[in-house]
Amino acid sequence: MVRPRKNRRVWFEPGITYFKPRGIPLADMEEVSLAVDELEAIRLNSIEELGQKEAAEKMTISQPTLHRLLESARKKIADALVNGKAIKIHGGNYEMAARRFKCHDCGNEWEESYGTGRPVECPKCSSANIHRAPEDRGYVRG
User: Fold this and answer.
1) Does the domain at residues 8-95 carry the CATH identifier 1.10.10?
2) Does the CA dihedral 7-13-14-18 come out positive or negative?
3) Are strands 98-103 and 130-132 parallel, antiparallel or unpaired?
4) Element (H, E) at 89
5) Separation CA 30–CA 65 (nearest Å)
């Protein structure tokens, strides 16, 4: 029996999910499917310039799994560019990361999904004295 796949944590949800070469009618075009977790691996490694170990930790996967995602994504992107195929970004085995906030007036802690903007007030006491939870900031103040 095969072990179920572990969800990969994704910190970015693509707003644009389809790319196609110019001048080729959509009806005649082949597509390459790029999973959201593959796109996230490329984004972390190539745009955020994280090493494979750091990117894997951020996605909560092993470094060899991240390496396989990168290889798969690069092969698909190269195939699309070289052979004039469209790239459709969808699916994959992922979960959106959430940001943690803490109210400094009542002590309430809660999560908000990425892409929803910064909360204006605490959902419990309506205070505006809210900040990212210390464990969610990526560093600890001394």
Assistant:
1) yes
2) positive
3) antiparallel
4) strand 86-89
5) 28
pTM over 0.85: no
In which residue are the tokens 């990168």 written? 70
Residue 26 tokens read as 């959509």
3-state secondary structure 93-133: CEEECEEEEEECCCCCEEEEECCCCCCCCCCCCCCCCEEEC
**pLDDT tens sequence across 24-62:** 888 889 999 999 999 999 999 999 999 999 999 999 999
Assign 34 to helix, strand or coil: strand
- Whether 142 has a pLDDT exceeding 50, the answer reads no
Where do the structural domains in the chain lie, given as residue ranges? 8-95, 98-136
